[in-house]
Write a structure and sequence with these properties.
Blueprint lengths: L1 H17 L3 H12 L2 H14 L6 H19 L5 H12 L6 H19 L5 H21 L3 H25 L3 H14 L4 H13 L24 E10 L3 E10 L5 E2 L5 E5 L4 E3 L1 E2 L6 E8 L6 E8 L5 E2 L4 E9 L6 E7 L4 E5 L3
Antiparallel strand pairs: 1-2, 2-10, 3-9, 4-5, 4-11, 6-10, 7-8, 7-10, 11-12
Helix pairs in contact: 2-3, 2-4, 3-4, 4-5, 4-6, 6-7, 6-8, 7-8, 8-9, 9-10
Length: 351
């Protein structure tokens, strides 16, 4: 008898879980009418009472993102969008219907597109493109129509580049100009017009350390890792099967480390690699502080020490090494990279 009662209660629990209570039904009605905030409140009441159906998260999440879409049409910079987006992301994993997932993703992409159009607000632009990328991930996970969401991203990218590129290219300071182009790349990494502008800029900034300091303004964490290795190429010669250069390092890792030439790699546009060789004929050096002057009148000066004697790349100091790379025909150099346990740095060559 006891076993029979347990089975009966288990069956009742399954039935209750699959049925819709009054609050959830009201939420569905508001959702269908486009009354999204009312729908959200009803769904929250249903969830609080613990009486929800298998469709609950499909419709609750759709109501959240449709409310965000409506808000974005009125004000794409609205502070309410962050809350809607956070709640949407919390519930996405429990969305079961492919049809619901598609609707949710398309609404997310529309919100992102609206945010990407806000002028002069980098943070909102970054959030917008992140929301579109999340929408693409949702459709990919549920096997829906990815093309429809990707097309929204392409439209947003193209509009952002058209709006932002002229001002970036008008900047006279080459370092600031490249920084502004890199900000655009955060949003539109595959845009052909931007790639061409970056290639042209990188040709001009080969001799420069791209150090983006406080004078630049806001610096998104994704754009610049300040605590790493920054490189410059005061002199570089590129041939069909070899590259030789003076490669300078400036370190801000907070560590003092040995500069290891074997960790310098030249990477091609296709991802192939060539390891650096130190050119013994050239002058290579590292900076260090040394004490000079007579006893009692000593002073500290920054001096260059030959690389063979001192390979230390000290924090906030420079090193210069004469290096060469060999590679097969068809290898198109893209960037030089240095990576160790303390940091990473890249220097793009431009084309």
């Amino acid at each position: 008898m006891k076993i029979q009662l347990l089975v009966a209660f288990a069956g009742l629990a399954v039935i209750l879980a699959g049925c819709k209570g009054t609050n959830e039904k009201r939420g569905d009605d508001h959702l269908e009418k486009g009354e999204y905030r009312n729908a959200i409140n009803c769904y929250l009441d249903a969830k609080a009472r613990g009486h929800i159906s298998d469709e609950f998260y499909d419709n609750f999440t759709l109501a959240l993102v449709k409310a965000a879409e409506a808000e974005a049409k009125k004000d794409p910079s609205s502070s309410l969008l962050t809350g809607y987006f956070e709640q949407t992301m919390k519930n996405l994993a429990q969305v079961k219907s492919q049809e619901a997932a598609q609707k949710i993703a398309e609404a997310m992409a529309n919100v992102g597109k609206a945010q990407s159009s806000v002028e002069g607000d980098l943070g909102t632009n970054v959030d917008g493109f992140a929301e579109i990328d999340s929408a693409i991930a949702v459709v990919q996970r549920t096997g829906g129509n990815v093309a429809s969401v990707k097309s929204v991203r392409t439209e947003a990218e193209n509009a952002y580049v058209v709006r932002s590129l002229p001002d970036a290219q008008d900047e006279e300071d080459p370092v600031v100009r490249e920084y502004n182009l890199l900000k655009i790349e955060l949003m539109a990494p595959d845009n052909a017009q931007l790639k061409a502008a970056l290639d042209k800029s990188r040709l001009q900034t080969r001799p420069y350390f791209l150090i983006f300091g406080e004078n630049i303004g806001e610096t998104p964490s994704k754009l610049v890792d300040k605590w790493g290795y920054v490189m410059a190429l005061p002199d570089v010669k590129i041939g069909p099967s070899s590259l030789s250069a003076e490669l300078q390092f400036w370190a801000s890792t907070g560590n003092n480390t040995e500069l290891d030439v074997s960790k310098i790699r030249l990477v091609s546009t296709k991802g192939d690699e060539s390891v650096a060789q130190l050119n013994a004929k050239g002058k290579s050096w590292c900076e260090a502080e040394v004490i000079t002057g007579p006893k009692g009148a000593e002073k500290v000066e920054t001096k260059q020490k030959p690389f063979k004697e001192d390979k230390k790349l000290l924090n906030e100091f420079k090193c210069s090494v004469q290096v060469s790379f060999s590679y097969p025909q068809g290898f198109v150099p893209d960037y030089i990279e240095y990576k160790d346990q303390f940091g990473i740095g890249r220097k793009y060559l431009g084309h």
